Each structure stands twice: as structure tokens, then as C-alpha cells.
Amino acid sequence: MCGFSGIFQSRIGDLTAIVNRMNDALTHRGPDDRGVWVDENVGLALGHRRLAIVDLSEAGRQPMHSSCGRFVIVFNGEIYNHRELKQKLEDEGLSPVAWRGHSDTEVLLEGLVSWGVEKTLQASVGMFAFALWDRQEQVLTLARDRMGEKPLYYGWQGDALLLGSELKAIKAFPQFTGEVDRNALTLLLRHNCIPAPYSIYKGIAKLEPGHYVILTLNNLPAAKIAVPQSYWRLNDAVARGIAQPFEGTASQATDLLDAQLRSSIGQQMLADVPLGAFLSGGVDSSAVVALMQAQSAQPIRTFTIGFDEGGYDEAVHAKAVSQHLGTQHTELYVRPEDALAVIPRLPSMYCEPFSDSSQIPTFLVSQLASKQLKVVLSGDGGDELFGGYNRYLSAKKVWSKMQQLPPFARQASAGLLRSLSPSSWDHLFRISKPLLPKRLHLSTPGEKAHKLANVLTLADGHEFYLQLNSHWTDPASVVIDGEEPKTIFTEPSRWPQTDSFEHWMMAMDAQTYMSDDIMVKLDRAAMAASIEGRVPLLDHRVVELAWRMPLDLKIRNGQGKWLLREVLYRYVPQELIERPKQGFGIPLGAWLRGPLREWAESLLNEARLRQEGYFHPERIRHMWQEHLEGRGNWQSHLWTILMFQAWLEEQA
User: Fold this and answer.
1) Does the active-site annotation cover 193?
2) Residue 286: its pLDDT value, please?
């Protein structure tokens, strides 16, 4: 895990000074070492910041040259099967005469030299982003891992090509203009994040997951219009899995998943530094920790944070799982002031506006873990692969029932749901909880009731899904001069071909919410604490196996993640896990009415909004007033605006 930056500038200046400045912006990603390489003849400079995880010696330093001297690489991430790739190179007589060390970077580089870019990418198991320079052909290749675990930004400012692991590096270029892309801002309002290939800045793109792009720098017109190519597509994995489904028994499916998870987690436990795991006590993180502990002779270090506010604390469940598995557990109960102290750091931490409020606890647990280790495994990915989100369980049922209602009945139902404020619905569910079946023990029922009201009059299931995944449903009407650009949501030709609505939603989430939100959140939060976050459930072999599993092995008897639970229950008693699904969040709505009110009011000031000129302020102010008075829970809508405003303030 590291960070890298680069610049190509045909008008050669002091490239060393520039790339050092870009490098310094990424110190948090690599506090252990730094390196710079400059090709003065061409006008290319590459910089690297190192967080030493595998091969801590000088042999692992970057930028790294190939044994033949033709290629130079800067690399961020981990290649988990590098030992197997190294053996394959040796068996084929393609390895160097002598390896300089045992780093995965060296193995990846020699693979790229011997097998070429696409074959090496397809053979590699891992999370990564890299820039590879071919000195002979003057070709720069940028590549990113399959599921988008590691970031890579790039773009042009005149004749200067800029690239970096984070926008911080690109912004450090002295002539960077940084014009806000108002169209990308509409995407932020809809999704809480800015999905690839867009970024908050005009002219700067994110390389999409599973893609690489070849830039021929001795032909600038061609380089500027180079189109990224895919070497792996989730939609293809989905189609293959559905066309060739697993046909064994449920017990055999459990055996198969258990074995693959053991293998993937075992590979991701390889490190030359201390390693541990996040543990919330839920299905996903508990499964990862259980399979780690099953392969370790020593207690695994696990970490969780808790909140005293009811409905947000999972620490007690994590502790119970830890005690059963025998992990070395660390927990921290966070005071509101601890969480609030993180907020001023968020604009810098995420370096483009990002408004998933669970970014705060994710950073806090990363900070907690960083006091003991440098690598942590996370349980992200289980919901998208195995059907864990509530919408997978209810969307089809709700949509089918909605279709049976005449339009006037839908309108009346929506009105009834809106007749009570979210806080009133929450109170009603709270006092009725002893009388309700377990499946109706919902977190934030008021917010869910109002979301349902918003979708009752939609035309089809796809619109229904988009509405469920939208925060601002008409963001172009809020952003001045903003027009929402095309994404996978609005282009049916890019939709996955599946055998059910549930599978379609899962496949969409995996290549949107997972890569653009969850992975961004984890990467930036972990890196801000200078630790490496690994996600074994997103090993592409686990992903491909999950898509071979029929839907009834994922969602069964009204419960999601059935197959993953079956694996987990081999290691952890069911009664320690079974409870209503709970997100990893903070009591944001209450904080906006309380300790965050003055801060929020300053950023949402009507005169300020008008002067800055990015938003039409009327609806924002109306929402803010309703939220303060408890007549609506607009926390997610307001948080998106606040995160942009806080980010904008930092740019001044």
C-alpha cells in the first residue's frame, strides 16, 4: 500500500521539484520512504511514497526498474498471488538471473515485461493501481484493479499529463487550475460520491475498475484521446456465473465457499508487518475474522468502535464474537466530541467531496488500529455478493405489490406515509417493537417510510432501484448550470444481464456503490491513518464464485447472505450473529440539530450559497429548517451539501 504521482510535460522544466511537491501531498499514504525518477530526455517524472508491507528492505523501493532496464513502475496495492506468479516466471525461464528481493512489485514488474500488460493483469490477484513507463517506446500504461479497491486519477492541463493516487497530488502541480465540474457535482448529490470516470474537476478522470489505458507520449494528440480498455468486467463474471451455475447441494456450496474464502483470506494475511482486522460483529466481518483465526496460531488482533447512542452501537456484538473466537480485541467507545473533531479533516482526507457519513467511524476505527499495526482486513463486499441489503429482500416484493395498486391508491399511500414525520415513525416503531415480528425491527424506520413514499408512483423496477439509491432525486435542479451526465444507471446498454431483479440490483451495486463509495471510504480513511486496508471478499475469485451461486443460496426464508452465514456458523454460534441489520453510522441527524448546528448554519447560510453560486439555495434552506424543527429527517441530503461546502471552503 502506497501512493504515487507523475507528470509528463513536453516543455521540460524542473520536473524533480514538481514531482517532489506532488509526492509530499501523499506522505500519509507512504510515510516509510519516498522515491523519484525523472526521464529528462522525454519530460516524464514519477514519484512514490512507500508504506512498507512486503519486503521492507531497499529491494522493495520504488520507482522500480525492470531487470532489463527498459521499464519503470510506480505501484500502489498488493499482489496476493505474487509467490505463484514468481514461480511461474521461473518455470517458464522468464525470471531475472537474480531477484533483487521478495517484493510483489518486482514480480509484477517482471510479469509485465515478460507477459505483457493484459496477460499479467488477468493473472494477478490483488488490489492495485500502477503506472508503467516503457522507455523504449515512450508509452505510459495506467491500470487499476478489478473491483476498484485502489484509486487512480489522471488528466491533462494543456500539454501536461498529471496522475496520482489522490487528487492532492494533482492539485500540487503549480499550474493546476482546478475548475469545478458542475455536472459531476450533480452526481455527488445523487450518489453521495462522484462515480468513475468523473471527478470534481474538469479534465481530471478516475480510471474505472478493471481497466487500463495506454498513453503514447511521443504522439500527444493520440495520447489525449486514448480510450481505456477493460481486461475484466463484472458484467461478464455475472453472465458466466448465471450461464454456468453451481449445481451441487447446499452443503457442497458451503464447502466450496469456505475453501475459497480460506484461500483468499490466507493469501491476504501475508505481510512482513503486524496485521489485524476490523470487527463489527456482523456477518461479513465476523466471517473474515473467523477464517483468519482458523489459520493463525496466535490470536488475531481485532478492532471496533462503539457509540453510547442507542441504535448505533455494535461494539457489544463484536466483543461477544471476539470472545468466542479468542481474538486479541481492542474497542473504543467514541464520545461525540471525538467524532466531531474528525469533521474538519474530512475535506482534506477525501480530497474531493464525499458524503457517506460512515466515513467518520471508518476513520476512527482505522486510527484506533494504526496504534498497533499496519495492515487490517475488512469485511466489505458481503452484502453486494450474497444479497445482504434490505432492498434485495423487499424491493421485488414491494414493487410487485405496488404494480397491483391503481395510481390513485399509490398516491394515497404515499400521502399516508408522509403524514407522519420520520421522527414520529421512529417513535411509533419504538413503542410498537414488542408487538412487531423480528423482520420489522428496522433501524431508521422513519427514513425508510419516507423513501417508500417517494417511490410509490414510479414507472418500473429500474426507476424504483435508482430512486432507492438516490439522495437528491433531481440534483440538476439544485446545482446551478449543472446537467447530470450519463452513468451506468442511465444507460441500459451497460446494465448487467441477470436472471432476477435481486441479482440485477446486486450486480449494479457491486460496480457503483461498492467501488465508488465503499472502497473510496475505506481507502482514504485507512490511508489517512497510514495503514493498509485489505478486502478479501472482493478477491475476484470469490466474486466469480458468488455469481455461480443461485439466488436461493443467497436469499432464503426472507434472509440475505444465507450461504455466507452457513460458512460463518461453522465457526461462530448463530445466536451471536442473528439480529436486525445495522449500518456503520453515526447519529448525524441529532448532531446536526445539536453540536454541529452552528457549523452547518455557517456553511448553509443563504447569502453565502448565493455568493458562491453553485446551488439554488431555496430548497436547501427549506430542508435545513424542516430538519431543525424535526419535521423531516434530511440528514443525508444536507450532509452532501455540507461536505461540498466544507471542501469548497478548503480550496480558498
Assistant:
1) no
2) 97
